[in-house]
Amino acid sequence: MNTILHKAGERGSADYGWLKPNYYFSFSQFHDPAKVHFGMLRVLNDDFIAGGGAFGNHPHDNMEIVTIPFTGALKHKDNTGGEGIIKAGDVQIMSAGTGIQHSEANASATDPVTLFQIWLFPKLRNIKPRYDQRSFDVAGRNNQWQIIVSPLEKDDALWINQDARFALANITATNTLAYTPAFPGNGVYLVVIKGKAEVNGQTLSTRDALGISDMLSFDVTAIEDAELLAIEVPMG
Q: Does residue 177 lie within any of the structural domains?
């Protein structure tokens, strides 16, 4: 097993007033040659968007973009007709494909939004752009992995144009969960959203991340109650 530890305090950050992002990988004005990507995972931004804050209409192409909100509500609109509001418990995915224009805005004028936005390189380039979102029962991730994004029909998750898989889990203290990649050779970028956990002798605290590769499976043990996100991606 190979691992790479990304501590929360070593992330890039910025303060635009209405937007306060933290960058796990090189993005915008933050560049670290050791943190450009993890396999097909290119971007993981931990964003705080103040009430009334908004990203104006802007383009993307050939990228799979997943948004997971934790608090507040985010409004999305794009030029394919995709439109919706997502909040905690919801997940949104957008295949930018040949090109898409979209805007994102805090749905509230006063309450902040906190979220992860995640970009993956696609499996197939120049596909037709698409947008989807779904609500997931948070109880479905109690001491187990809840698959939220996957191309596999059996996972009953939001479809993604990549051999990748996203899973959430809420583990109570002292419990252990095993994770086995759905695709042989894939790596897993494990993020502790909240709490404290241990993997392969390494302790991870809130917002720490561990890139794990060259393994058949791994165990994660909650040192205290922990919320986890596992992003499984091809490493090639």
A: yes
Mean pLDDT along residues 188-199: 98
Kindly state whether residue 158 falls inside one of the protein's structural domains. yes
pLDDT at 156 over 90: yes
Write the DSSP string, the chain: -EEEEE-GGGSEE---SSEEEEESS-BTTB--TT-S-BTTEEEEEEEEE-TT-EEEEEEE-S-EEEEEEEESEEEEEETTS-EEEEETTEEEEEE-TT-EEEEEEES-SSS-EEEEEEEE--SSSSPPPEEEEEE--GGGGBTS-EEEE-S-GGG-SB--SSS-EEEEEEE-TT-EEEE--SSTT-EEEEEEEEEEEEETTEEEETT-EEEEES-S-EEEEEEEEEEEEEEEE---
Mean pLDDT over the full length of the chain: 96
Q: Give pLDDT, residue 78.
A: 86
- What's the number of domains the chain is made of? 2
Report residue 77's pLDDT band, with 50, 70 and 90 as the boundaries: confident
Note whether residue 1 is domain-resident.
no
Residue 54 has pLDDT above 90, yes or no: no
